[in-house]
Amino acid sequence: MLFLRNPRINHLMRPLFLLGVIAVLVSCATQPLPFAYEPPGFFSGLLHGFIILFSLIGSIFTEYRIYAFPNSGWWYDFGYFLGAAAFLGGSTAQSR
User: Fold this and answer.
1) What pTM, to 2 d.p., does this model score?
2) For residue 42, which of 7, 63, 77, 79 is within the disulfide window of CB 3.0 to 4.6 Å?
3) What are the structural domain ranges in the chain?
């Protein structure tokens, strides 16, 4: 019980305890199973990544999401990454 009286250790234990509680609560979260005839693939991810800024603005005012669910997994993620990189950072190389 001596460590609870030490303000330094008590100061460190509170955030760690809070982080532990959050981790336990988040670990209970589940996602619905993807039931789709043709889930979005690489090219849909590329398009969604390219229009990421407009999708973000639209998601503030509507129920639109910036990331498609259900998607085809890794290929959609890869296309999304390439599209976002082209839109958000691709023009930097041209300016030099």
Assistant:
1) 0.55
2) 79
3) 1-30, 42-88
Contact criterion met (CB below 8 Å) for 41 and 76:
yes
Structure tokens at 14: 């509170």
d(CA 50, CA 91): 12
**Phi, psi at residue 90, to the nearest 5°?**
-70, -25
pLDDT band per the 50, 70, 90 thresholds, residue 46? very high
Q: Say which amino acid occupies 27.
A: S
Helices within the chain (DSSP H only): 2-5, 7-26, 42-50, 52-61, 74-88, 92-95
- The alpha carbon of residue 16 and the mean position of all alpha carbons in its chain are separated, in whole angstroms, by 23
Q: What is the average per-residue pLDDT within 21-33? A: 75
